[in-house]
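$ ./design --mode recover --in tokens.txt
reading tokens...
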């Protein structure tokens, strides 16, 4: 009998948790909230699904949350700046690049390959990310109420401006790239 596999992508943001379940590349459902996430994971487990979890956080992932999700998932990968990324980072401090910014840029690259991109993502912060035509993350800026954090780069006008919202964008990036 073929094993029933459900891929789960969880994005722990600064203000809320977003998540999506996939069967292969097909999006099954996308929701927000911790209680809903636990309830949905238990529902899939009761159906006999093998849950593969990709956990990502621009916000803080508490140890109790990590343990709870690990207890419900059959496999877990936690995204971090130390893991191999399919997006080359072309500035001096790649470890400072949030994995959420990588995900939004990967989603944009899937939609507009081979073109320079200015990718704008709005969540608790608004990020402006520049990917050159060679597919290299060159830099960007993140704006929030407390000010602006910048990574310097020289940007020629992009061929495409892609505006997104984190809740759907991280999922888009995960759907188009194999997370496992």
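writing sequence...
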């Amino acid at each position: 009998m073929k094993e029933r596999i459900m891929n789960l992508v969880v994005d722990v943001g600064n203000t809320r948790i977003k998540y999506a379940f996939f069967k292969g590349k097909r999006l099954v459902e996308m929701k927000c909230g911790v209680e809903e996430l636990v309830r949905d994971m238990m529902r899939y487990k009761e159906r006999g699904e093998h849950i593969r979890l990709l956990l990502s956080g621009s916000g803080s992932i508490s140890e109790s949350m990590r343990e709870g999700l690990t207890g419900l998932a059959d496999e877990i990968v936690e995204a971090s700046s130390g893991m191999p990324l399919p997006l080359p980072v072309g500035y001096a401090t790649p470890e400072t690049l949030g994995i959420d910014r990588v995900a939004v840029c990967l989603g944009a690259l899937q939609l507009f390959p081979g073109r320079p991109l200015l990718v704008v993502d709005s969540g608790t912060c608004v990020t402006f990310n520049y990917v050159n035509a060679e597919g290299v993350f060159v830099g960007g800026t993140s704006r929030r109420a407390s000010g602006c954090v910048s990574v310097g780069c020289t940007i020629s006008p992009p061929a495409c401006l892609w505006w997104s919202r984190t809740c759907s964008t991280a999922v888009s990036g995960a759907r188009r790239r194999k997370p496992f």
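exit 0
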